[in-house]
Amino acid sequence: MKYTTRSKITFVAAFSNITLIILALVTFTLFAQYLLNKNVEIAVVTEAEEIVQEHLTISEDRVVYTKSSSDLTLEQHLLTDRLSAKIYNKDSSPIGTFGIFAQPDISDIDEQLLETAVKKTCSATAYKVMTNTKLGSGTYTVLYYPILRNGTCDGTVVVAADTHTTTALINLVIQLSIALLCVAIVVNILVGQKIAQLILTPLKNLTKTMRKMVVDKDPGKVAPLNTPDHDDLSQLVNTFNTMTDRIREGASKQRSFIMDASHELKTPIARAISDIDIAKLSIENMAGARQASTMLTDAQNDLKTISAIIDVLLQAAKLKHAALSFEVINLNELIEAELKDLHEVSKTMDIAITISINTAKVFADRQLLSLIIRNCLGNAIKYNKVHGTLSITTAQIGNTFTLTIINTTINSVTTAPQPESHKLGFNIVKNLCEIANYSMSATTQEEKFTVSIADIPKALAK
């Protein structure tokens, strides 16, 4: 059988509390019973001592009665204290019976048991208390008290106290305990349900929010709990809210990235379509074969650009979802290798390249860092002007390196492209830098566009 979480919490809370209450009630009942029995024991011992001191004396090795200082007889004394007594000589012969011992319902078996106990007490010369002793039709606490003289037993006093009142009190205590236990069970079940409700409320809110995410595709937030930050439920709610914040941020970045990529891809596609249309018209007229060839070449270049952009996007996506493999990399060699691949383009545009790189060994993922540098250098050449300049420098700051790429722009300072002019390339590199935990910035000033990539970790010497 399966139980709900609320039922389990209610059961655990109620069971724990009820167990403690039962233990407390049992302890209280046993302690109350002990105290009541102890009071009866003290009463019969005190009575026996008073009988021996005030009402009995030894004459010629026999026990005889004397009158007390208060002129009370032994019978009056016992009636006042509501006790019964029976006096025995040294030879276990009785010399007087009072109270219950004088009643006719005391059987011969009871008498035999009393005499046997008296003999044992006189032999042991120490008193003995017997609780819950059956005498006639009642239950008594019976004391066997030896009359000692010079360490010798001269007789025995048997004192009996009716335990009916004590038993009634104990039964009353037990009944009250059972009643309190029943009330405690009901209260604890109700309290357990309330505790379960309080505990499960944040989880219920989490479930509602998650369901809303699935149905409405809206990652909402759960209200913070009024509990300390280290509380488990508070940490769960805070973690969930952090997760939804990242989902929203990721979705926003994804939308922005897709819009930028779509816009950038749309431009070469439109040019390619236009060039192909013009080429078709030129071929149909048979008058612009050269122009048609040029247009088709331009269209081909635009399609190559689209293909290259898609390749970069695919690489970025693969890197984002793959585990990075870090190694020691010579940054100088990596930059020179990427420049070598771009040599033909830079040579065609007659771009003067200046490299000022100190020996820089970094700890990074080779594929990711190569993609970042290739994209930055490609944009720096692509958006440069003919006979322009390209400057590449590295600087060590603490335990990190900063790579700076400065290139001249196509137009004058008034129309120089801002970082947004490199929007797709800039966003791609920025996205890749975020994957690698690098920081990236871009500025335009005096016909020069500057890109800086910082926080590239230095490879520590072994």
UniProtKB/TrEMBL annotation:
TM spans (from-to): 12-36, 172-191
Keyword presence, Iron: no
EC number, as in UniProt: 2.7.13.3
Pfam families referenced in this protein's UniProt entry, alphabetically: HAMP
Keyword Kinase: yes
InterPro entries reported in the protein's UniProt record: HAMP_dom, HATPase_C_sf, His_kinase_dom, HisK_dim/P_dom, HisK_dim/P_sf, TCS_sensor_his_kinase
Keywords: Kinase, Membrane, Phosphoprotein, Transferase, Transmembrane, Transmembrane helix, Two-component regulatory system
Catalyzed reactions: ATP + protein L-histidine = ADP + protein N-phospho-L-histidine
Histidine kinase domain ranges (all copies): 260-460
UniProt domain HAMP: residue ranges: 197-252
CDD domains, alphabetized: HAMP, HisKA
Subcellular location: Membrane
Gene Ontology, cellular component aspect: plasma membrane
Predominant place of localization: membrane
Gene Ontology MF terms: phosphorelay sensor kinase activity
PANTHER family membership: SENSOR HISTIDINE KINASE TRCS, SENSOR HISTIDINE KINASE YKOH
Name assigned to this protein: histidine kinase
Organism: Candidatus Dojkabacteria bacterium CG_4_10_14_0_2_um_filter_Dojkabacteria_WS6_41_15
